[in-house]
Design goal:
The complex is a heterodimer of chains A (406) and B (125). Chain A has two domains: 46-106 and 276-369 and 387-405, 3-Layer(aba) Sandwich (Rossmann fold), CATH 3.40.50.740; 109-269, 3-Layer(aba) Sandwich (Dimethylsulfoxide Reductase, domain 2), CATH 3.40.228. A nine-stranded mixed beta sheet of chain A has the order 4-3-16-15-14-5-6-12-13, with helices on both faces. The longest helix of chain A is centred in the N-terminal third of the chain and has 14 residues, at 56-69. Chain A has helices spanning 31-38, 56-69, 83-95, 109-116, 125-131, 142-145, 149-154, 165-168, 181-185, 198-209, 219-230, 241-246, 252-261, 278-289, 309-315, 326-329, 332-339, 352-355, 395-405; strands at residues 15-19, 22-27, 48-49, 52-53, 73-77, 99-102, 134-138, 171-176, 190-192, 234-239, 266-269, 295-296, 302-303, 318-322, 343-347, 359-362, 372-375, 381-384. Chain A has 406 residues and is an alpha/beta fold. Chain B is an alpha/beta fold and 125 residues long. Chain B has a single domain (2-124), classed as Barwin-like endoglucanases, CATH 2.40.40. Helices cover 25% and strands 29% of the residues of chain B. In chain B, strands 2-4-3-6-1-5 form a six-stranded mixed beta sheet. The mean pLDDT of chain B is 94. At the A-B interface, α1, α6, α12, α16 and α17 of A face β1, α1 and α4 of B. Bound molecules: iron/sulfur cluster (SF4). Iron/sulfur cluster binds next to α1 of chain A.
């Protein structure tokens, strides 16, 4: 069995037949995961320095030189690397007195941090399969972003305590702006809100729990939903990017709701982390520094919004990007600032960021060409075994080589 | 016409991104905006029209698609370097960009949809 690194579910039941480096047959992959496996042979990156193709060693030594000379380097990415590579990355950040940040800084960081700090209760996806009878998908569309979430863990499967699955034993609500593919599945329980309407909805939900009339259009539906939520045996909330962006800076509202629901019954929270090992990086950096992202090692350990990729892109004098494509994913104005900084990029594929980088270091595709381990969205550790050989080093090996050459 | 742009993730677009972010397939899946049917017809926008979206932060030409469901006033775009042209570079004190709630205008244009290479060229200009 192989593992898919297409999203943070890290599905570990993947069957793959290979002929040399060619994948001939796969089983159990979703469309997104299949894309990930097929990317093995599409648009791979090659070692480059200043736009010219070079050997991998030349690219590594140029990267080491640039890092040695930098005064204020930013090391960014990390959510598509193994725990072993991330550990090397943190070591490199310390050695070069760098700012280190990951993609959680522009997405789910605030919620993941509350989970890692134990400020809101959480559980594993296996617990969800076995006991989660009342679910809230909030600002997410698992059918598109984590295509096997509902079938492997949350909605459709039978569990130890839930032998009749979604037909009778489970109730799932979806709160979102858009009538997404998941909304079609959960059509009877789809609560549609306007952009930015999440905090108002939480207020309305809390009002019902306090026995007050909620200030929403469909009061009856809201009261019925809250009655169902109160009657749960084990409730689970899955916050997605929609909630993360809408409630940014106000996550205490989410916590207030979770705390209040926990007065009735057990409610856990599992953030719908996107990239396959973002949770791993956040945990590692937290264990090391007490912070999940946005850390500077320039003078001991410092943390704050000025060390976010958004701010550091404007103030750093070198950026090393590992397994991420910030030029594509950041707002254009911030990407433009980053594009002005000399960049070193480690990535298995050609990306917008590799195109603008002074140094490109191609790496093996983790899970397919490189092994290691990663933390699933619920924090469960999953081992990765390579199934084909790569001519290029893993992130971990490339980072070790850079560390050795500095 | 004024709209609120909300970005989202689409599985077909994610698959195309895994395979080739410089490819035509990825551009086709990314450089689109889904509009409410009534909104679009009032603004003279047809399914497949090229439209110019403009926010305080930037502008981009993409292809309009008309949604099956009604969502007046909202325009949905897959999260991509095209939608990122509209997202503010300025953030509040959280330093988390606002990807899902952008005021913009949309109108028909005869301009073409930029390629990834066009976007990159502009990025370094
Ligand atoms: S759900 Fe995620 S991990 Fe599972 S096969 Fe699909 S992309 Fe891969």
């Amino acid at each position: 069995m192989a593992v898919c690194t297409g999203c943070s579910l890290l599905c570990d039941d993947i069957e793959v037949s290979i002929d040399g480096r060619r994948i001939t047959k796969t089983k159990n992959l979703c469309r997104k995961g299949f894309g990930r496996y097929r990317s093995l042979s599409s648009d791979r990156s090659v070692p480059k320095v200043d736009g010219k193709q070079v050997g991998i060693d030349a690219a590594i030594s140029r990267a080491a030189e640039m890092l040695r000379d930098a005064k204020r380097p930013l090391l960014f990415g990390w959510s598509c690397s193994t725990l072993e590579a991330q550990r090397k990355g943190i070591e490199l950040a310390k050695r070069t007195k760098a700012i280190i940040d990951d993609t959680s800084s522009i997405c789910q960081g605030e919620i993941v941090e509350m989970v890692i700090r134990g400020e809101i209760p959480t559980c594993t996806l296996d617990d969800v399969r076995n006991y989660g009878d009342t679910l809230i998908f909030w600002g997410c569309d698992p059918s598109s972003s984590h295509p096997r979430h509902m079938s492997r863990f949350s909605y459709f499967p039978r569990g130890e305590k839930l032998q009749r699955g979604h037909e009778e034993d489970r109730t799932a609500f979806l709160i979102d702006i858009r009538a997404s593919p998941t909304a079609k599945i959960l059509s009877g329980n789809f609560v549609q809100i306007p952009p930015g309407g999440d905090a108002d909805l939480i207020d309305a939900m809390l009002a019902v729990l306090d026995g007050k009339i909620p200030r929403v259009r469909d009061k009856k539906a809201m009261i019925a939903m809250m009655n169902t939520l109160k009657k749960a045996d084990t409730g689970v909330i899955f916050p997605g990017l929609g909630l993360a962006y809408s409630l940014r800076g106000r996550m205490d509202r989410l916590k207030a709701l979770v705390d209040r629901l926990n007065e009735y019954t057990k409610y856990n929270v599992i953030p719908m982390v996107g990239h396959y090992n973002m949770r791993g990086f956040n945990q590692l950096l937290f264990d090391e520094t007490g912070f999940i992202n946005r850390v500077s090692f320039a003078d001991g350990i410092d943390h704050g919004p000025m060390y976010s990729v958004v701010e550091a892109s404007k103030s750093c004098d070198l950026a090393m990007v590992v397994g991420s494509d910030p030029i594509s994913s950041l707002p254009a104005g911030i990407a433009k600032a980053l594009a002005r900084v000399p960049m070193i990029t480690l990535d298995p594929h050609r990306t917008l960021t590799t195109e603008l980088s002074r140094v490109v270091i191609p790496t093996a595709l983790s899970g397919i060409e490189a092994g290691g381990s990663a933390l699933r969205m619920d924090g469960v550790r999953i081992g990765l075994d390579p199934i084909v050989k790569s001519e290029y080093p893993s992130d971990e090996e490339a980072l070790s080589m850079i560390l050795g050459a500095i | 016409m004024k709209v609120t742009v909300v970005t989202f993730r689409d599985i077909f677009q994610s698959e195309a991104q895994e395979l080739d972010r410089f490819g035509e397939e990825y551009r086709k899946m990314s450089a689109v905006v889904f509009l409410d049917k009534n909104d679009a017809s009032k603004a003279g926008i047809k399914d497949g029209s090229n439209v110019l979206l403009e926010s305080d932060n930037g502008r981009v030409v993409v292809v309009a698609r008309l949604s099956e469901d009604s969502h007046p006033g909202l325009a949905f775009m897959p999260n991509s370097p095209w939608s990122n042209r509209l997202i503010p570079a300025e953030t509040d004190e959280t330093k988390i960009p606002s990807f899902k709630n952008i005021s913009a205008t949309v109108r028909v244009t005869s301009d073409g949809v930029p390629t990834v290479e066009d976007l990159l060229r502009e990025m370094v200009s």
